[in-house]
Amino acid sequence: MIAATAEIHPTAIVEDGAIIGEGCKIGPYSIIGPKVKLGSNITIRSHVVIDGNTTIGSGTSIFSHAILGTEPQNVHYKGEDTELIIGENCQIRESVTMNTGMPDAGNKTVVGNNCLFLVNSHVGHDCRLGDNIILSNNVMLGGHVEVGNNVIMGGGAGVHQFVRVGHHAFIGGLCIAKNDVIPFGMADGVPGELLGLNVIGLRRAGYQKQQILDIRRFVKSVFDGSGTFKQRLSKIDPALLGEAEKDIYDYISTDSKRGLITARLSHKSQD
């Protein structure tokens, strides 16, 4: 079904069964598969391929040579009908790739609202991405990666499969994150290490100077105090923690497939 107000270039191919919302614009030589569902006011530039069982939210803009909704890059995929769901008002720049999910992992790759994906970034199968995320050029997310809201990743960063990245975290350019990054954490290096807090992210979230100092002190006590990590964690009373500290405590107390990223807190946090 194609809405009456949609504008489709004569060279574009929209296969039977695709749903194209009001005000959509589809540019030259783009291909829209039969199971694709586009919301309203989506702009698709030239030479874009959107395939598979893919749903894209209203207001999203997709630039040339992006390829969305193709099969997961997984040797165990056998042609099952899995999904890619992209939220509203995202910007997907040139040559970005996103794959659908795997049947043994919930069938879905999910991207939130208001996200920005820069040139050549990749979202692997079964990723779960929140809102307001920025992936810079050439960022690579392996399968099953979870990324919280308001995360920024620098150019060329890579995130290992099954890694979690907490909300408001910052991952530096060319960093290889093999383990989970805490909320508000700042990771960098190869392999990636936790260098401190994303202070700019904390400020943007409304935290004041004293609160940031308290959060920094809490993180240092967890990662760099006396005794083992489990012993330090066991001494914490969650009821006495502030909001951000509680988020971090809950995050590191949750079972993880990859474990936490190594901390090197002698380095100065971002300021």
Q: Strands, helices and their partners?
A:
Blueprint: E1 7-8, E2 13-14, E3 19-20, E4 25-26, E5 31-32, E6 37-38, E7 43-44, E8 49-50, E9 53-56, E10 61-62, E11 67-70, E12 83-86, E13 91-92, E14 97-99, E15 108-111, E16 116-117, E17 122-123, E18 128-129, E19 134-135, E20 140-141, E21 146-147, E22 152-153, E23 158-159, E24 164-165, E25 170-171, E26 176-177, E27 185-188, E28 193-197, H1 199-204, H2 209-224, H3 229-234, H4 243-253
Output the CATH class name of the largest domain. Mainly Beta
Strand arrangement, major sheet: 1-4-7-10-13-16-19-22-25-27-28
What fold name stands as the CATH topology of the largest domain? UDP N-Acetylglucosamine Acyltransferase, domain 1
Distance between the termini: 51 Å
CATH architecture of the largest domain: 3 Solenoid
| Largest sheet properties | 11 strands, mixed
Beta-strand segment tally = 28
- Whole-number radius of gyration? 20 Å
Helix residue percentage: 10-25%
What does this protein structure show overall?
The chain has an eleven-stranded mixed beta sheet with strand order 1-4-7-10-13-16-19-22-25-27-28. The protein has a nine-stranded parallel beta sheet with strand order 2-5-8-11-14-17-20-23-26, with no helix packed on it. Helix content is 14%, strand content 26%. It has 271 residues and is of the alpha/beta class. It contains four helices and 28 strands. A hairpin with a 4-residue loop joins strand 27 and strand 28. The chain folds into two domains: 196 residues, 3 Solenoid (UDP N-Acetylglucosamine Acyltransferase, domain 1), CATH 2.160.10; 46 residues.
